[in-house]
Structure formats: structure tokens, C-alpha cells
Amino acid sequence: MENTTQLGEHLRESTEAIIQLVESEPTLRSQDIAAIESSLKKVISPTFEIAFVGAFSAGKSMLINALLGRELLYSAEGHATGIECYIAYAEADKERVVLTFLSSREIQDEAQYLLQQLGVTNQVDFSSDETISTILETCTKLVEKEGGDSKSEKGRTAKALKLLMEGWEANRDRIQPFGNATYSMEQLDLKNLQDGAAYARRGCNSAVLKRLEYYCHHDLLEDGNILVDLPGIDAPVKEDAALTYDKSNARKRLLLWWS
Ligand SMILES: Nc1nc2c(ncn2[C@@H]2O[C@H](COP(=O)(O)OP(=O)(O)OP(=O)(O)O)[C@@H](O)[C@H]2O)c(=O)[nH]1
Ligand SMILES: [Mg+2]
User: Fold this and answer.
1) Is a pLDDT exceeding 90 seen at residue 102?
2) Do 90 and 108 have their domain in common?
3) 86 in a structural domain
4) Closest ligand to Cα 233
5) Contact 88, 221 (CB under 8 A)
6) Which of 12, 88, 204, 212 is the 20 to 30 Å CA partner of 175?
7) In a domain, 122, yes or no
């Protein structure tokens, strides 16, 4: 009897033969081959997402790190995870990280919202270096005045805006005006998963990242399980909480609830 791997291999060979036939026949060239390929991938290497959802600071990221036996995800007191992180399987010699950045438009909208929270209601020109320097200086002073970035809402907001502006300055050549740019480890000169994790963990980089994908060699992931780490459902940053709420409603995903 054939095992699942052999069946998958036969299915792949047969489908590829059919695709070749379709491509060689001019009258059939308009057929959507990409849809067939994507369905084939789903059948021969199915994945299943397991999302860790719950209150902020409940220990979700730390638990995933403990399960994998490595410090990939940022875990700290207070509101720690601000982006969606996916951890999927890779062969031992093919471990990698894929980083997706926010667009300039998303960063500017977020900055404008944070400025509004701080009482600045006029539209700001983020293309001016002078404006960015002024925002950074003002935020630094505000955080000092508030006695740190965790003592008051104003201090937290000023710190978040400072990190966002620093992240934008540091990664400006990588960020696209409207689309979400995606980079491999090699493109960012990162040598391994730990390097990737360290890059994403830096506050200013984390502020301008949208999504992280770790491809990691671990038995737990080998059957196609993808671990998903998300911000706390009650995260003090409302966009982060909204992201988790949104992802929690996705179908075909197991939710592990923490409180
Ligand atoms: N003693 C103890 N501390 C823990 C445990 N789990 C988490 N912590 C601590 O709790 C804090 C928060 O842990 P995280 O893993 O960042 O929590 P999280 O649920 O991912 O939080 P968010 O990313 O903000 O949603 C960290 O300082 C951890 O060291 C645990 O089982 N025991
Ligand atoms: Mg976390």
C-alpha cells in the first residue's frame, strides 16, 4: 500500500503532466495554472495554524519559545508583542526569516494618530527631515517629563511615536510608499534565525514591521503545524488588539486561549 508521501508524489507528477499539456495547447493557455498549483500545494503539504491568543503579558510568547527551546519571540513585562509572528517548519539547513514592513502610508497614518493622542491635530509633513527631528526631540522631552514611558498614557504614546519615527528613519530605503515590502534574511544581512529575531526585537525595527515569518527546524512543526504569536487581545495599543481580534476570527485555525 502506498503511504501519504508516495501518494502526494504521484499526485504532484500527474498534476504537473496535466499542466504541461495545458500549457502546450494554445487554446487552453488562458486557464489559471496558479490556482491549480496552489491547490496542489495545499493537498500535498497541508498546513494548520495554531494561534496563541489571550491577555497581554499572559506568557504566550514565552510559552512558544519554551516549546521550541529557543528565544525567537520577544517576551517581556507589559505589552510586548506588537506584530503577527508565524513559525513554520524548515529543514535544518534551510532555516530562515521573512520580514514584512509596514508601508510609508501605514506608518504616517499611525504617527498622525499618535500625534493626535498627544494633542497635535494639524496634518504633519513627514517627508521633512526637520519635522522628524522636531518630533523625536519633543517625544524624548515628553517621556522625561512624564517620568518614563510606563508611568502615564502620554509617556507611553510619546515613546511609541519616537520608536515609530526612529524605525522609519532606520529603514526608510526598505519601506515602500503604499505596498508592504518583504525581505529575506540575506537581503538584510542577517546570518541566522537568532540574528533575525534580534533585528525584529529592536524596538524601532519592531515598530515598522507588519509581519514576521520564522521557518524553523523543530519536530513540533514538521507535520505542517504553524504556530502563530499575536499581541494580547486587550493590548493597550488599540491597533494591536484589533489585529488579534481580527486574526482570531479567521477560519481553519485552532485558537489556544490564555488568560
Ligand atoms: N514566573 C513566570 N513568569 C512568566 C511565565 N510566563 C511568562 N512570564 C513572564 O511574564 C512576562 C510576559 O511574558 P510574555 O511571554 O511576553 O507574555 P505575552 O502573553 O506574550 O504578552 P504580549 O506579547 O504582551 O501579549 C515576561 O516578563 C515573562 O518573563 C511563567 O510561566 N512564569
Ligand atoms: Mg507576546
Assistant:
1) yes
2) no
3) yes
4) 1
5) yes
6) 88
7) yes
Instruction: Report the pLDDT value the prediction gives residue 2, as an integer from 0 to 100.
Output: 62
Q: What is the mean pLDDT of residues 151-155?
A: 89
Q: Looking at residue 222, what DSSP letter applies?
A: T
Q: How far is CA 89 from CA 4, 213, 222, in A?
A: 18, 10, 6
Q: How many domains does the chain have?
A: 3
Q: What is the pTM of this model?
A: 0.82
- pLDDT for res 250: 67
The reply to whether 93 and 206 lie within a common domain is yes
**175 falls within a domain:** no
State whether the beta carbon of 56 lies less than 6 angstroms from ligand 1.
yes
Choice from 53, 57, 68 to test ligand 1 binding pocket (greatest atom count within 8 A of CB): 57
DSSP state of 103: P
> Does residue 67 line the site of ligand 1, with CB under 6 A?
no
Distance CA 93, CA 73 (A): 21
How confident is residue 253, by pLDDT bands cut at 50, 70 and 90? Answer: low
Q: What are phi and psi of 100, to 5 degrees?
A: -115, 125
Is residue 198 predicted with pLDDT exceeding 70? Answer: yes
Q: Which residue range(s) make up the domain with 62?
A: 47-102+180-258
